[in-house]
Design goal:
The structure is a single chain. The protein has four domains: about 400 residues, no CATH class; about 100 residues, no CATH class; about 375 residues, no CATH class; about 90 residues, no CATH class. It has about 1000 residues and is α+β, with helices and mostly antiparallel strands. It is about 60% helix and about 5% strand. The chain contains 33 helices and 13 strands.
Length: about 1000
């Protein structure tokens, strides 16, 4: 008995972890004990895990195992945040949440602890490499069993035990039809596919550690069988993630020559195995969808317009209760015709509440019989469920309590995204804590691969790292970190790899130092900017067109290829922006009347400008922190809203993109970068020409490069004046050609109204607009009401305005005279003024004009903040860090909330435009020739967002394609009463965002 106890004392945890790694993947999810209000059950593996964990806790109390692991702190932090979130939901939120059950919330929290505690147990069992190899033999046998059962399920009729709904979760054996996706011993095909990606990455990496060819062949066959089984799951996300993981394995093993052949063979096999390739093809389609013309109910997909009476679908008839989640496409509800009659001036069809978002709208509608046929983006059921159901539900839980979330189980059983689930359940703190675990592991792997040379250990680390990346990417569409079979394998595997690192590298560098080194990598800021931009602006992709957007699209739709060259010679009374018009002409066939593609392009232009600002600041200051801060401020500032969210501003973004990258090329040329020097100069000239073809703001470019040369001493007295002039001459020649083409040849639209120069008020406008833009940069849109009031007051009281003008000129002059500024700061303020020069004399502000110009302000602000930090650091480092974080964090939070508010306004503006067009197209399929539509109180702005300053006529052209349809605007409702009821006249009025038609009784 004593020998047995002694043996268990030494080997119990090893045997326990080995058994769990073998048993859990193979044992079906058969229920044991039910939990009320959920169909998640306590199963046999939970008791086995509990037994192993109890053994580990005993050893921990006896100090035979330790918690001193590199990932201990982030894991404990995540548990603490989860516990606080759970407590907060139980105490404060439970009464406000529907279908929230305390015991289920506690159950989900304990499940997280159960999964992750195995990391500590597994890591504590790694004592030497030879014994650790046995774990991977066990994992390989378990994988072999999973593959055997999966193929048996496909070809031999082995039963499946699923948990997709309450009935299946009771342990009922199901026999899958031949076309079904394989699940093997797992509860669903998504769980199986994610597990296989992890295993394929691990064992592919282990092949390179094996010496004997026989063992290499055996492991290769296991990997190949796993890959075929992965294809039989028909999981698109897992196949894509598999490609990423396998490429990373080959890259880290320095077997790059294998990447292209393996990827090509994988894609070829995917096309041969039915299911996966077909599902990829059905992800996004444009189809004719048949709607009931009266009720607006989507009926089916249409194969032929000639057979409207006989509707064909790819599936059986779509049940009404299945909509909108999982419908397979995004439907467009139509207006039910329920006229009312109560007054002499009758309002008929209040429309606003009956129409939905632009992403649900279609392109061209044609009517046949009792059906309405519309071109619609068709998503498959997986994406439809996420877009319309699970993701919005998770975000709703997050918005309810952004810091701590709404508590575990508050997003229902699934969110189809582990990160959104963490965000909804545990808030921003919970998500950041969880990501810190993955981040710390990545840093540990990076450090270890530099020093560990042992082939087996390197292969384990590379395979686990690639598999972890695969799991992390899978988590964007699946709740994979919450899937029990995957989690019970993933966390022990992570523990084994960390245990090997500790064994091989008992002395390691601090992860903080590793973090600092990673932060200094050139690619890190790019990744941070991309992630930040995606989080900030991804939701704007659903914004519909507004105002001027329809004007651009109308022109594009009517332009033929033969006429395209004429845009450079004839502006047709429009602005001279020929390159932008060419852009719209080229992308319109791709994007059509779906705004997502246009918003994506604007997003990419903004991201490109942000990278340009980062490089420019880095070159000017030589300080990464200054460059990072200036670019981050530039990226998220709310004054960018008009430029990013308004598709009509694409020409403006294009010009700014060419401006910043052309300027960077000029700086490179000035820096004498050897053989590439003249290439940079030519690139700068080309960027200048392209920018002039995009927007008139580019005319300040020659002044900007001249100012740069003056400030940084690029103009030297020793050179001949002719040589100096020759540098700038090509830019001035291009400028002259631009003005000649714009004015004399193309006869482009000139300045007018508030957007024009008034020589009498030029000085007032110049200083006033500069102050207005600076105020917006600091206080965002909150500054605008104060600015408008003061401007109105000063227009009436010119003597006061003149006095203030003098004071406002003297103050900066005295400041710059007494305060010694660095060359970079002087250049930053000069950049701000130079880029704003064409617009400072105008009679009004427009946020899009300050875009890119405000980079100068942010460069100066970042320099100032870093100087404060450096001065405080000499006195008290902790105080300096605290103040720096408060200042920077406060600015980023304030501006981030403001840009989100602006995004909401632009979304609402698009909704108004979308509902207006859909309302008219739904209620009036056509108008008689010569009809006039009168619109009263047509909305021009929604907050700071444009709605219909112009463009309604162009938007209605896409609905009716009637050039003779006349649109009239008015703000006088009483004056319109006489037109109500007249032939070929319709009067519409906007009231509280709703479009209503005036009818007489």
């Amino acid at each position: 008995m004593g020998k047995l106890l002694n043996w268990l004392d030494k080997h119990f945890l090893e045997v326990g972890i080995g058994f769990l790694l073998f048993f859990i993947p193979l044992y079906p999810k058969l229920p044991l004990i039910g939990v009320r209000h959920t169909w998640v059950y306590i199963r046999w593996e939970d008791f086995l895990v509990a037994l192993v964990v109890v053994g580990w806790l005993i050893q921990l109390l006896r100090r035979k195992v330790s918690l001193k692991l590199p990932l201990t702190l982030p894991i404990i932090l995540y548990w603490l945040v989860g516990g606080v979130s759970l407590l907060f939901s139980l105490v404060f939120l439970r009464s406000h949440l529907a279908n929230f059950f305390p015991q289920v919330a506690v159950f989900h929290f304990l499940r997280r602890l159960e999964y992750m505690v195995l990391f500590f147990v597994a890591a504590s069992t790694v004592k030497d490499i030879k014994k650790t190899k046995k774990y991977f033999l066990v994992i390989g046998l378990a994988l072999l069993g999973v593959c055997f059962y999966g193929f048996g399920q496909k070809y031999l009729g082995f039963p499946a035990f699923l948990t997709m709904n309450e009935e299946f979760a009771k342990g009922i054996p199901l026999y899958l039809p031949p076309s079904a996706r394989v699940t093997s011993t797992f509860a669903g095909h998504y769980d199986l596919s994610a597990f296989l990606v992890l295993m394929i990455a691990l064992f592919t990496s282990l092949i390179f550690a094996l010496k004997k060819p026989f063992y290499k062949i055996l492991v290769f066959l296991l990997v190949f069988a796993s890959f075929i089984l992965l294809l039989l799951t028909a999981s698109r996300i897992s196949f894509a993630v598999y490609l990423v993981a396998i490429v990373l394995v080959f890259w880290l093993h320095k077997k790059k020559w294998l990447i292209i052949p393996v990827v090509l063979i994988s894609i070829l096999l995917m096309n041969q195995i039915s299911g996966t390739s077909q599902r990829f093809g059905k992800t996004f389609r444009i189809k004719d969808v048949v709607y009931d013309a009266e009720t607006g109910r989507p009926l089916a997909l249409l194969e032929s317009e000639q057979e409207v009476g006989k509707i064909f679908t790819e599936e059986e008839e779509i049940a009404q209760e299945d909509l909108p989640v999982g419908s397979g496409f995004l439907p467009v509800p139509l207006l039910q015709k329920e006229p009312t009659a109560t007054q002499a001036a009758l309002i008929k069809r209040p429309i606003a509440t009956a129409l939905k978002t632009a992403t649900m709208s279609s392109e061209i509608a044609t009517v046949s019989g009792e059906f309405l046929i519309k071109r619609t983006i068709v998503y498959d059921i997986s994406f439809t469920t996420r877009f319309q159901g699970t993701w919005p539900r998770a975000l709703k839980a997050f918005y309810r309590n952004p810091i701590l979330g709404s508590g575990y189980s508050s997003v229902a059983l699934a969110a189809d995204n582990s990160y959104l689930r963490a965000l909804g359940e545990t808030g921003l703190l919970g998500l950041l804590a969880f990501l810190s675990i993955l981040g710390a592991y990545g840093l540990l792997i990076r450090q270890s691969l530099k020093k560990i040379t042992q082939p087996f250990v390197r292969s384990v680390l590379i395979g686990t790292a690639a598999g972890t990346l695969g799991i992390a990417l899978n988590a964007t569409l699946i709740d994979i970190f919450e899937a029990s079979k995957v989690a019970f394998t993933f966390w022990p595997l992570l523990g084994l790899s960390v245990g090997l690192i500790i064994y091989c590298l008992p002395r390691r560098r601090s992860l903080i130092k590793e973090t600092i080194e990673v932060i200094k990598l050139p690619v890190t800021p790019i990744i941070v900017f991309l992630v930040t931009a995606s989080l900030m602006f991804f939701s704007s992709f659903k914004n519909y067109f507004v105002g001027d957007d329809f004007t651009w699209l109308h022109w594009t739709a009517k332009t033929r290829l033969d006429d395209l060259f004429q845009v450079f010679l004839d502006a047709k009374g429009f602005f001279y922006r020929p390159l932008a018009r060419v852009y719209f002409f080229l992308v319109y066939p791709l994007f059509g009347l779906q705004p997502q593609g246009f918003h994506l392009v604007d997003f990419l232009f903004h991201f490109g400008c942000t990278l340009g600002v980062y490089l420019l600041t880095l070159w000017l200051t030589k300080k990464r922190l200054v460059a990072f801060l200036a670019s981050l401020f530039f990226l998220i500032h709310p004054v960018n809203a008009e430029s990013i969210f308004w598709i009509s501003s694409t020409s403006h973004l294009m010009a700014n993109f060419f401006y910043i990258w052309g300027f960077l090329a000029y700086v490179c040329w000035r820096r004498n970068l050897r053989k590439w020097r003249w290439f940079f100069y030519i690139f700068a000239l080309l960027a200048f020409a392209l920018g002039l073809s995009s927007h008139e703001r580019m005319i300040t470019f020659p002044l900007a490069i001249l100012f740069y040369d003056l400030v940084f001493g690029q103009i030297k007295k020793s050179r001949k004046w002719l040589a100096e002039i020759s540098v700038y001459l090509p830019f001035w020649v291009l400028t002259s050609v631009y003005f000649w083409l714009r004015g004399a040849v193309a006869q482009a639209h000139g300045l007018s109204g508030d957007y024009s120069y008034n020589l009498k008020n030029f000085a007032f406008n110049f200083v006033g607009n500069l102050i207005g833009y600076l105020g917006e940069l600091i206080a965002s849109f909150h500054f605008i009401p104060w600015y408008d009031l003061s401007r109105t007051f000063l227009r009436i009281h010119k003597p006061i305005a003149l006095g203030l003008l003098v004071v406002l000129i003297l103050i900066p002059w005295l400041f710059f005279k007494k305060v010694k500024l660095s060359k970079t700061t002087i250049f930053a303020f000069g950049w701000l003024v130079i880029l704003l020069l064409p617009f400072l004399g105008l009679g009004n502000l427009a946020e899009r004009y300050v875009y890119l110009a405000h980079a100068g302000f942010f460069i100066a602000l970042a320099i100032w903040l870093v100087k404060i930090f450096e001065k405080l650091k000499k006195r008290n480092l902790k105080l300096a860090i605290l103040i720096f974080i408060l200042l920077v964090g406060g600015l980023l939070t304030f501006w981030g909330l403001e840009i989100k508010k602006a995004q909401k306004e632009w979304y609402q503006a698009g909704e108004i435009a979308n509902k207006t067009l859909l309302a008219l197209s739904t209620n009036y399929r056509e108008f008689p020739l010569g009809t006039t539509l009168y619109f009263v109180n047509l909305p021009i702005r929604q907050g700071r967002a444009w709605v219909f300053p112009v463009g309604l006529e162009d938007g209605l052209w896409f609905v009716y394609q009637d050039e003779n349809l006349t649109i009239e605007r008015s703000s006088d409702l009483e004056a319109m009463f006489d037109l109500v009821g007249q032939p070929k006249s319709h009067v519409f009025v906007f009231e509280q965002g709703e479009l209503k038609e005036m009818k007489k009784e």
